[in-house]
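Table S2 (text version). Query chain:
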Amino acid sequence: MKVIDSFFSSHFIQRLNPLLSNSSIDNIENDLIELAIAGFCYTNMGHVLWIVGENENLDEKKEKLELWLDVIRDHSLEISIVFYSIPFEDPYINNEIDARSIGDKVGLIRSLQCKKRSIILTTLSALSMKVEPPNRFSEFFLELSRNRTISRQLLLAQLNTMGYKSRNIVEEKGDIAWRGSIVDVFPINGEYPVRVEIEGDTVISLRLFDPDSQKSLKH
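Corresponding structure-token output:
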């Protein structure tokens, strides 16, 4: 609490009392909402769920939150900012799954699994979509490393079960493609696709590559 005490007024600290499990903060200036949320996160022992307007820019809010967290940060605490957004625009008009929303969901589940304190940005419409129970969280992740034993057929089957789509080449998150012993995967929550080389039933190489040029990136 030393960082918080030195930055906020005693009145503000009192309003962020961690003993109030269902606290609400009213009449905060719009420009200070992110500061209030960041401060509340440090005085609250659990996750902070921030329900924003349906059309508000989540990336903008995350950027402002990161700035305030950096100002008041207690480096002994690790706080992640994650999204939980609706996976499609309108179930009656467009029910095509949005890869980014699925990636956000994976990031949220990973954060919960790692027991990190999190600020979860979401909307009321997104909250109407249920999250899978904890005993199914492992279905969202597949960890690969060199020398892991897995056949190409099993790898492709697992990726298909996770919702990845087969393409001629990978271009977007959620794509997979293969030729011979090579399987290209664009992780749903990754910045670049990964080229997996399998020899027999063993992973012998993992390389990031550029989805535009399809060439490996230098490490």
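Notes on Table S2: The mean pLDDT is 79. The helical segments are 2-7, 10-15, 33-43, 58-72, 99-113, 124-127, 152-161.
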